[in-house]
Amino acid sequence: MSHRCHHPPAKAAPLTRRRSLAALGLALAGPAMLRQPAWAHGPIDQPAPVRLLVGFPSGGGTDLLARLLAVHLGMALQCQVLVENQPGSGGQRAALALKAAPADGQTLLLSHTHTINILPMTMPEPGFDPQQDFTPVAGLAGFVEALAVSVSHPARNWAEYLEWLRAQPQQLAVGVPATGSIPEFLVQCLQRNHGLPLQAVPFRGSAPMLAELVHGRIQSAVAAMHELMELHRAQRIRVLAVLGAQRQAVLPEVPTFAELGLPGFEQASFYGLYAPHDLPTATVAQWEQAVQQVLALPEVAQQLRDWGMSVQYMNRSQLQAREAGHRKAWKRLIFCEGQKEADSSAGCSRC
């Protein structure tokens, strides 16, 4: 990558508070400003910008994170980094674009665990194998999924939600953002392993699902915390429980599923940065260093917290280990049907 950037430094350039605040404002300004041509920011002979692929639509949680990182990473490495949305099939389209790209450091993928871990386990022929076709570069941020109800729902907490559920004569629909997603498997596990009368109803993305939840056309839904936070703060929905090993700092009053006596959902999701297979080690190291520097900025950390995420820098080896643990945990939950509650935390022997 270094030969394509405009006068790259041997080390990532330090980011001052003034520069980082300016970058944050630009990152949140929207796609139009971030997609200005290269000559608008530098010499007319500046090379093509780095492509940061995102497998989900503009305006979602992954896209917001990508645009925040694009500006800061570009500043750190003195390159232009442009977000390129290629939504489709839970990130499959963007993953295939990364697989087809040359390993020159000019194309990267920002993805969370669904595309990297869940999709290859649940789609018969995804067309890519993350462990063979991609180079993990660095881990970025963690987040959890959560179950929320509409503000018109009578339940104010999980105990009241359970009481309401058990008073219903049939299974209750719970919205999930996509088929084969972690939210769908969470709902299935709550029904299958814990006897709750729930039925997952997939939507085509979080936005239409949350619109239905806000207007009370569905009673409850499961989505990523950073997609629920603003609606919860605005008192348009109510978050009742979260995944993860501990409560979330942004919602300290909301218990985890484990606290509620529903073990097995302690593995939180996370975002990582990926490159095509065989990316040169020196280029991986350059990106690792830049990611670590950007995540150390107080302004970046605060923005992630405001979105309901947490800074979780991981180098390449740490990211690979985290992926392995996440795959193992969710493989048990996805494929071990008919397990009792006692088996949910221990996993099942045939997984």
UniProtKB/TrEMBL annotation:
Q: Which Pfam families match?
A: TctC
Q: Which domain of life is it from?
A: Bacteria
UniProt cross-references to InterPro entries, sorted A to Z:
BUG, Bug_dom1, TAT_signal
Q: Which PANTHER family match?
A: BLR1237 PROTEIN, TRICARBOXYLATE-BINDING PROTEIN
- Which family does the similarity line name? Belongs to the UPF0065 (bug) family.
Name the chain's protein. Answer: Twin-arginine translocation pathway signal
Q: Which organism is it from?
A: Vandammella animalimorsus
